[in-house]
Write a structure and sequence with these properties.
Blueprint (H helix, E strand, L loop, with lengths): L2 E2 L2 E3 L2 E3 L6 E6 L4 E7 L3 H20 L2 H17 L1 H12 L3 H25 L3 E5 L2 E9 L2 E5 L5 H14 L3 E5 L6 H12 L7 E3 L4 H10 L3 E7 L2 H14 L2 E5 L4 E5 L8 H10 L9 E7 H17 L18 H16 L3 E4 L3 E2 L10 E2 L2 E4 L6 H4 L6 E7 L2 H8 L4 E2 L1 E5 L3 H10 L4 E4 L14 E2 L2 E2 L4 H7 L1 E9 L1
The structure holds nicotinamide-adenine-dinucleotide.
């Protein structure tokens, strides 16, 4: 095994301090191919200390100078886009084209967007006769960002870019399941001489490194993306020290299809929303709710499309669907399919593991799976699966569609397909979700608020929301 990753602490590559390592697997082959430091609370303490030391100088820089550093990091990442895309594809199992066209370009955009945004983020002032108020937005100090494995560099940059842009110093913890591109970005930061200590990365397990970061008294805020179970534990820990938290959690997103849906992009988009990244995107539409009069036609067309997806080697340009990320996750998704059958679901396509020939014979592949015949209350239709598995349910009326859409504990995103403008507005208003797309899906403008309601999270990311989260408002009142 050749590749050994390191932490980035105080601008230095720090290898496993206790000599403990975690294996990193290639999901397409099922083989370990790298080792990641199995960090601990001492590594977190060292990173926080480095970040605290760097904070006064970094926060005192004019926003334009901080923006220039973040832009330099974006330039260096963009210059190595192919290398990063190949690494992300290998680490997550996602098709190379997806990493090349979505993940890494979006990571570059995240850096550039928040570099630019920081230069436009201003104080507010409110004057009245004889009185002027102005509200300063001051960085918090050292902040922790914790990210998941499904969109590794995309979500890691989405969190640390606004934190740095607002003047904070960061200790980041990528997922131990997919740690490689964060490590590579740390190496890039060192190469361009990014100010030491401003941006630190500690690799390792959630229960060790993540928890130590959450519990560290000098960490002023935690921005977390991951499962609802872990997010809830983090909220409990942060409550004890009144640490600011932003939580982007799980989803069980509905796609509502009315018979009058504009058909041109419908199936392409619904198939993407169901199966992109093997269904491992928090925004994926996993519950397809279809108006009864159109149900049969839609179902048959969807199943034909799902069967036509090419499951296989992420490096093969013909592949549309790679493996799921890990053996435990493969087992979980297969157990969810077995549960759906036990609950009375009819598997219309997929439902099985796939064993490609050649180098991917031992990979963790699952055929795109469509299930019908289950009601809204069963576990299959209420619990997050996070794999290439969707269910179909029929509805008769707009109210019934709404009731089905809202019949889950989650509320992250919804995609709604209709030509009736009035209906689109009525439903968008009443759907319990932080993000509603009408006749589109995963159409993101980085200026817009992003986040979930109910069990899908707390707080919003994106645009000013992120910069507000990573700053503290201080109002100053002057009697003139
Ligand atoms: P996870 O919750 O298992 O892990 C996420 C991160 O938290 C990892 O880095 C992990 O090491 C860390 N962690 C685990 N235990 C911890 C603890 N006790 N303290 C601190 N950190 C800890 O999630 P995952 O399996 O990596 O990711 C999949 C989940 O993420 C899904 O539920 C998905 O819906 C969700 N997700 C949400 C969004 C969103 O924007 N809402 C985006 C992507 C993924």
């Amino acid at each position: 095994m050749s590749l050994r990753l390191s932490h980035l602490i105080g601008g230095q590559a720090v290898t496993a301090t206790r000599g403990a390592w975690l294996d990193v697997f290639e999901p397409a082959t099922g083989q370990a191919y790298a080792q990641c430091p199995d960090g601990d609370a001492d590594d977190v303490a060292a990173a926080v200390a480095a970040a605290r030391q760097a904070f006064p100088a970094w926060s005192a820089l004019p926003a334009s100078d901080r923006a220039a550093w973040i832009e330099r990091l974006a330039d260096a990442l963009e210059a190595r886009l192919d290398e990063f895309a190949a690494a992300e594809s290998r680490d997550v199992g996602k098709p190379l084209a997806l990493a090349r066209n979505l993940d890494i370009p979006r990571a570059v955009s995240n850096l550039r967007f928040f570099a630019a945004a920081a230069t436009q983020f201003a104080s507010e002032s409110h004057s009245a006769p004889g009185i002027v108020n102005y509200t300063l937005r001051q960085p918090l100090g050292v902040v922790g960002v914790i990210s998941p494995w499904n969109l590794p560099l995309y979500l890691f940059t989405w969190k640390f870019a606004p934190a740095l842009a607002a003047g904070n110093c960061v200790v980041g913890k990528p997922s131990e399941v997919t740690p490689v591109t964060a490590w590579m970005l740390g190496e890039v930061a060192r190469e361009i001489g990014f100010p030491p200590g401003v941006f630190n990365i500690v690799q390792g397990r959630g229960a060790a490194v993540g928890q130590a970061l959450v519990d560290h008294p000098q960490v002023k805020a935690i921005s977390f993306t991951g499962s609802t179970a872990v997010g809830t534990r983090i909220a409990e820990s942060c409550a004890r020290s009144l640490k600011k938290t932003s939580l982007e959690l799980g989803g069980k997103n509905p796609t509502l299809v009315f018979a009058d849906a504009p058909k041109a992009k419908l199936l392409d988009t619904v198939v993407r929303s169901a199966f992109l990244n093997s269904g491992q995107i928090c925004l994926c539409g996993s519950r397809l709710l279809v108006e009864r009069g159109y149900y049969g036609e839609f179902r048959d067309a969807l199943v034909a499309r799902a069967k036509a997806l090419v499951v296989g080697d992420p490096q093969d340009p013909a592949t549309t669907t790679g493996p799921v990320v890990s053996k435990p996750h493969f087992d979980k998704v297969m157990a969810c399919i077995a549960l759906a059958k036990a609950e009375g679901g009819r598997v219309l396509c997929g439902g099985d593991a796939v064993q490609p020939a050649g180098r991917c014979a031992d990979g963790w592949f699952i055929a795109p799976t469509v299930i019908e015949g289950l009601g809204p209350d069963c576990r299959t239709n209420t619990e997050e699966i996070f794999g290439p598995v969707v269910t179909l349910q029929a509805f008769d009326t707009e109210d019934e569609a709404l009731a089905l859409a809202n019949a889950v504990p989650y509320g992250l995103a919804a995609s709604l397909w209709t030509s009736d403008l009035g209906r689109a507005h009525r439903l968008a208003d009443r759907i319990e979700a932080g993000v509603v797309w009408v006749n589109t899906w995963m159409n993101r403008d980085l200026r817009t608020p992003f986040g979930g309601v109910k069990q899908s999270g707390l707080g919003r990311e994106g645009g000013w929301e992120a910069l507000r989260f990573f700053t503290e408002a201080k109002n100053v009142t002057i009697d003139l």
